[in-house]
Amino acid sequence: MRKIWDIHGGIHPPENKSQSTQTPIGLIDLPDEIILPLNQHVGTPADPIVNIGDSVKKGQVIAEAHGFVSLPVHASTSGEITAIEDRLIPHPSGMSARCIVLKPDMQDEWVALTPIDDFRTKKPGALAELIRNAGIAGMGGAGFPTAVKIQPRGDQRIDTLILNGTECEPYITADDMLMREKAAEVIRGAELLAFILGEPANIIIGIEDNKPEAIAAMSDAAKNAKVEIVSFPTKYPSGGEKQLIQILTGKEVPSGKLPADIGIVLQNIGTAYAAHRAITYGEPLISRVTTIVGESLNIQRNIEVLIGTPMSHVLEQHGFEHDQCARLIVGGPMMGYTMEHLHAPIVKTTNCLLAPTKAELPAPAAQQPCIRCGMCSEACPASLLPQQLFWFSQSEDFDRLHTHNLFDCIECGACAYVCPSNIPLVQYYRASKGAIRQHDEEKRKAEHSRQRFEFRKERIERAAAEKEAQREARKKAAAAARQKQAENAESAAATATPKPETTSPDKTAAKLERALSSAMSRLERAQKQVADALETDDTARTDTLQARLKQAELKVDDAKKRLDAFKQNNSDAKAGVNTIEEQNSASEKLEQSIVQLEKRLATAQQKLAEAVNSGLPTISALEQGVAKIRDKLKNAKEELANINNPETDTSASTDELKSAEAAISKAQTRAAELANMNPADKAVAKIVSLEKRLDKARERLSAAEANNDENLEVFRASVVTLEKKLADAKAKN
Amino acid sequence: MTFLRITSPHTTRAGTAGSVMQTVIIACTPGLVALTLSFGIGSIINTLLTALFCLAFEAVCLKLRGRPLAFYLKDYSALVTAVLLGLALPPYAPWWIVAVGSFFAIVVAKQMYGGLGFNPFNPAMVGYVVLLISFPVEMTRWTLDIAALPEGIKHPDLLQALTLVFVGADSVLVDGYTAATPLDVLKQNNSLTLDTLYSTEPVFSSARWAGAGWEWVNLAFLAGGVYLLYKKVFTWHAPVAMLLAITLMAALFYDGGSSTSTGSPLFHLLSGATMFGAFFIITDPVSSAVSTRGRLIYGACIGILVFVIRAWGNYPDAIAFAVLLMNFAAPFIDYYTLPRTYGHEKSRSGRVK
User: Fold this and answer.
1) Which of A57, A80, A703, B169 is within CB 3.0–4.6 Å of A111 for a Cys-Cys bond?
2) Do A387 and B290 touch (CB under 8 A)?
3) What percent of chain A has pLDDT above 70?
4) B280 within a domain of the structure (yes/no)
């Protein structure tokens, strides 16, 4: 005999279960219309695969699962699709959602089914897939896709499978009747689920001791099976997932975790039955056992009803007296929700329709002040302090609600049931949970926009500082140039050697490179923002962002040109003075940058390919990016070639050194001048300088040809490169 | 036609806050009967008068606050306060004492804080303490138990009692029916051993275990308390903790019954307002701690305070002071005694960091 644990709290409301257990599970006539919501489960709604006017057979898939946590929808009977539209669905909020509407042809004709005689011949994964394809969701009320639940993650070792036959809610007897009448099939379902889960050590079916017939039938059916039938004292809410686990195993599911994390999978009796039928007979989930109960009905019983049958049809078939009915409840009186209208359908999770009279469930009494009597905390199965939560809910003290574990409330309603002051406590908790979620979301958004604001501020400040620095640099350079001119004029006769430089060319180059890279990163950011905006369809933002992008592109071009010009001017000069080591290090740097560029090119191309494949709106931006990286790569390679093929003799004489120094100073002056020039002037200057360089290179080449130099090929290549560059520059201009 | 739209749960247990209060009032009857049998008709007059004044004050306050009279008067909370105050006052107390006590209990301690459920202090005890501090003579004039009365002296009859209450003590010829309570006698004693004291003092010599009349009154309140426990109006934690704490303290300082002894545990359990306090005062849910652990601490602290004040304080009894002091501490206790919620490894502090 298995040890039974007790749960904290709990209540004993009037059971009201005998009304609906007097007759066997019945059947009702086919309705005129079947309404099949696309989202009867927890997860993503299914995608319809039929069109209006299509004829479908019973059990045919009419909507496919969309994603992992989703389920298909099957036609409950044969007939014609008459509409795919929003209809009222059973939901606490009274909302409408997309449904497929079917007009039965009254033939009730099945599609071809593929039964499996022995599930043990199949692989567990394949069986789980079949259960998923059968559209089976948790039938106790939550509606979580069963296939997901019985395929735990790799790190979760399942040692216990529990089938929940507790049915602790008053009035509901669907599981009770199912166990009485289909005990053998439920046991087969349990064995099937255990097989899929890899044969856990414990297979337990928990039943409250107020169902002696069900316990007897199940014990009888389980005689030769490795299944334990455990009964325990009746107390609401023993049937809650966490509570039942505690009762049967003594373990608690840690807050915020799943039962599978402690090695337990819990399924409803009805789910096991449906899984068994799905495998053994190949039948998808198109009907379920539902309790139809309440004093405003002439017949109170359980029926096997087609999914999608309108509630109005079900109630009519049971002698519903409309004006007697106080409210229509889907589910039980403790956790069920009310429907304002009758035309919503029965869905996979509808375990009970309760239509009580006013005498049966009178309207709630007026709320009195809380006297903190503590009866609620005595009743709470989660060991919370409901009266404190109530005070904090009223004062919207979210921090205290957190420290008092509001989110561990399972909304079972035991506290509100015992409250002598008739305070609708659960309503307060639901409202507070909603308010907290909204508050957290707003906080997250506010934090996001704060970060964006600060980032923007920082960027603007940085840009301003850069501008200022550039202005300073220009001023200095201009002053230096003026001074030099004056000095040159003075010392023209006296000495030819120029003064040593105040700023080294390396530093200037580095600065220009920095400016370029920051401009590049800004450009990339702008591109990304544009892409994001395009994705979110924010036209206003897209426009401003595109303007910003263009600006950034201009800046990058500008910075690049400046750097190129400087480098080109400098390279001739540098060539004269640089030692071989320096050259090598420069070439190494370039090689590294080429490698990096190639990598970037590869990723950019990959991204582009992905974008093309999935048809994203970012394709053009990505294409531009790829083109740009290619250009850069080409430039870098050319530069490397230039460096590796020195155009000047490295064993330079002192004269040459001097002339090189002069060239450097000239280049620097030119760079400073260039910095002050506008783009058009710059382009012209560039063309001029290129022409000069080309002339020089041609001279060198002819000299080399005359001397039959070993570097002849190199000189030729450089001439070709320069010609190309010149042509480019001219074309651009 | 649309149906009622309402969220779950759709059913509640029968009973209202009013019915809880009614049960408390019913549970007070044994105590009231014992008080009457031991000390005469005074306690009944007290209770009727407090009921009159408390309901009147409650009605006036509700009217001033613009609340529906019938709805709030039907919660019986004012009547509970009235009964508790009436039982706590010495019999044959002048009517104006009763009026002042009721005023402070209902108007100041309850309605000014927002009415039922919002009062941080036990209203009846606030009324009692205000009276005890302001009118010590009237408030310490307790009647002798019927068995301990000297020869030829009787408790006042109804007419005499009404005269005492409404006209004054001087105008009535009856006398000699008042004396120090057992707690008083023991407190004043510093020369006799307990055995000698028990045999010489009439309040003890005519008693079975503790003090004449008081032991029966306490047993009657204990019976009422057990009834409330059976009715699940409150849990056992606070009363048991308080009684255990008093027993433990009394046993620690019993001193073998010497002349400086503070009295035996049984004497303390069955004297003064011990049982009345344990089951009817500290169990007031509004002003006490909420969790079971919290109520254990709350009750135990009250028990210790009661004994400390009785033994070494300035007052012979101390329920009211002890309760009010711990009322202050109740929210603090609550923050550190949250129960361990399902799925959590340990209970957390309710304090917001």
Assistant:
1) A57
2) yes
3) 88
4) no
